[in-house]
Design goal:
heterodimer, A: 292 residues, alpha/beta, 5-stranded parallel beta sheet, 9 strands, 42% helix, B: alpha/beta, 41% helix, flat
Amino acid sequence: MSNQQFHQFSGTDGYVASRALQDVVNVALALERPLLLKGEPGTGKTLLSHHIAKALGMEIIIWNVKSTTKARDGLYTYDTVQRLNDARFGDGDVRDIRHYIKLGPLGRAFASQQRVVLLIDEVDKGDIEFPNDLLSELDEMRFHVMETDEWVAAVHRPAVIVTSNSEKELPDAFLRRCVFHYIDFPDEEQMRSIIDVHFPKLSEDLLQSACRIFYGLREVPGLRKRPSTSELLDWIRVLLASGAQFPKEETPSLQSIPFLGALVKMEEDTSTLSRHASRPVDVRTAGHRFFR
Amino acid sequence: MFLALYHSLRALQVPVSLTEWFTLLEGLAKGLHNQSLDDFYYLSRSVLVKDVAHYDAFDQAFCHCFKDAPLPENIATKEKILEWLQSPLAPLQLSAEEIAKMKSLNLEELLRELEDRLRTQDEVHNGGKKWIGTGGKSPFGIGGNHPSGISFAAERGGGRAALQAFERRYRNLRSDLTLDVRQISVALKRLRDLRDSGTEESLDIGATIDKTCRNAGEIDLIFARERENNVRVLLIMDSGGSMEPFRSLSERLFSAANKLNHFKDFRAFYFHNCVYDKLYTNLETDEYVPTADVLQEYGKKYRLIVVGDAAMSPYEMFYHSGSLDFKRSSSITGIEWLRQFAEVFPQRAWMNPLPENSWTEYETVPTIGGLFPMFPLTLEGLTRAVRHLL
């Protein structure tokens, strides 16, 4: 395989992908293995698959996993209740069971005539056994519909992207089949190019102070939810829309940062920040603070 | 030639299986490494390593195999120093002449001195004047108060991937010390006991057929109820005093359990030193509930998790007036209360934030360990505790 074919994905106009990320996406595409993405919230895990689809000109099918999602829902559902009701009231063609079998996201990805991107989003939200239940389907790229005794096999192997927020939970058997990548939090240089993609004409002044405040906030110890890329982008959007001015001094006080709420969202964190700003606290008396 | 990488990874306890190794070979056969060390680094890492906690070990193995690097000694030393510096202490206030005296040391002298001390220091020193540590007057350390001191803080830097392996950026994601709220929630999620309850949502086919037949063919749909977690948890935490260094860890456990919308019921209380006749609901207002009521109300039905270092003076445990608050005039000793808890809660676990290998240093830890199965407050320990509680 030549270099040309290997380098399929290299980011898009709307998404800055690091070298590592580009490589890993291309490895997963070439090996036809599911790509498992982890990383801090807000590092663009979900967004990536949209942009892979865009860059490669494929359709994207999204499967949002919830706590009640079962592996079977992704393949197909057989609507028994509808059929029984139809039988009872004489509606529809009850005789043909096919009318009551609906393909799920995975089923549609298999059945599609073109190669598609299948995003299984937040796989850790599902039941603990959820990923294991998908193993054979993802391996063999086909499944059996019991009711009709038919096989649904993939016309083209979909490019499967799996995202997860948790650190350690997915079953080993599932992990062995994946290509894994942990998306690092972007450093300042990368962040600048990300901002540049979203706000091409941002002044250097604003960019610099925004980055300084943002990375300063992330360094504050004890934050429950550290501000992430998406929050930074929202914040810049608000700043631009309102025309707010940045504080000029080198280390601005907390009160002088405009629209802090766009960056720090949890009430506990706001109080952590104000404590951090007005140090020191006497450790000996702090032991009586209520855990909250 | 790459087999060395496989064996070094296994030696560093990264769970690499043959399946993954063959996948890597497949990738190499397809030319995905692109004749470049960087691409090979990303290719092999993404295929072989499935957990960011192992990224650091991978970097070490990679260096070892492709850079001929035995682990540089100074990295190990630096890691040790950073460990010493982790424990917190209050900032120190210094008088003006002390500061003036310290300012007289110049950088070269400091560096020479540092080398000297590195050779002789072999443990954690906090709050002192000489050794490397936190919050002290020594010129070396973090958060200290030496005007011309040297601080050890984590380095930053980008660069090429193969060089990145040398930087070992994933060191911080390594061990189970970085227990965050989410990881704890994940571990606690396993604590479940599913029972039928909740709303009627799914179709019960057997019952529907049965009912329909009884109705002489007139279809009658029967729905079954959903399954729901039946586990109730009672959390009792030690706070203040010797638990101060572990406060944020306990806080995280509390908030993980509290936020997890997963248990049938979750209650938390606090105590100081040892459990006596009162358990506190709110440490600021000293709101409390009588311990006897807690035993009666929650006994048998709840699973008990106690968080505490279990390290106290024996008198705090064996005498009824042993608590710091002399106004308490209860006739039941701390150990007696603990014994009652052990009796009433068949499913119980004690989470201890102290490292497991130091437990034997405290007289009271084995005593309590005899009443409560004790686990270290790490991710691994929590997983074990949850398994025990099921």
